[in-house]
Design brief:
- The chain is an alpha/beta fold.
- It has 8 helices and 5 strands.
- α2 (42-53) links the parallel β2 (28-35) and β3 (58-63).
- α1 packs across α7 (173-182) and α7 packs across α8.
- The longest helix is centred in the middle third of the chain and has 15 residues, at 101-115.
- The radius of gyration is 17 Å and the shape is globular.
- The model has no long low-confidence stretch (mean pLDDT 92).
Length: 229
Amino acid sequence: MRKKAVVLLSGGLDSTTILAYAKSQGFDLYALSFFYGQRHKFELEASKKVAQQFGVVDHKIVKIDLRAFGGSALTAEIEVPKGRTEKEMEGEIPITYVPARNTIFLSFALAFAEVNKSNDIFIGVNAVDYSGYPDCRPEYIAAYQTMANLATKTGVEDSNNLTIHTPLIDLKKSEIIKMGIDLGVDYAITSTCYDPNKKGLPCGICDSCVLRLKGFEELGMKDPAEYQS
């Protein structure tokens, strides 16, 4: 019997790579995406395309409202930082950080995994080429996994404890892209930008776009996604 994996899928570069990786490890895929009040829905359309490409068994899009709290440029009327240097990105935690987002998402993934009798959750967090988010660090994931195995029926009764897989956590963006290409990812259908235009085209100058473009550049490749002029 094939194992089941719950994969957090935003439709972006990292989460798409992690979905492809989980499939390559022989898992049946159960993907979980969120409409959480973010600035745009284009990433959700991307997640549908990605789920279809990789034969996801069940793709759920859950609606929650983090705009009720705001506090982020992604969930409130706050300007998205653009044109920042890498040194500036390495400073304080940016305003694009959504308070407690990964904790909330992982909690939903935990419930989805229990219902589907899965002991494996995949999340595309990265602690190298990232924008300083505290919920992308290895110590955070380790702590959450410990909590998950204390807080669930599966964790208490099942000899195979739940594992949160983060194979991208120590990779540079270029290494993530190389992995995805080797696994057959079509990055043209992914959506990474924090502030795309009304047609869904990425800006090319927000932190997320800058890191993505840098990754392709380091590989000597052109990003296949179409950008704003």
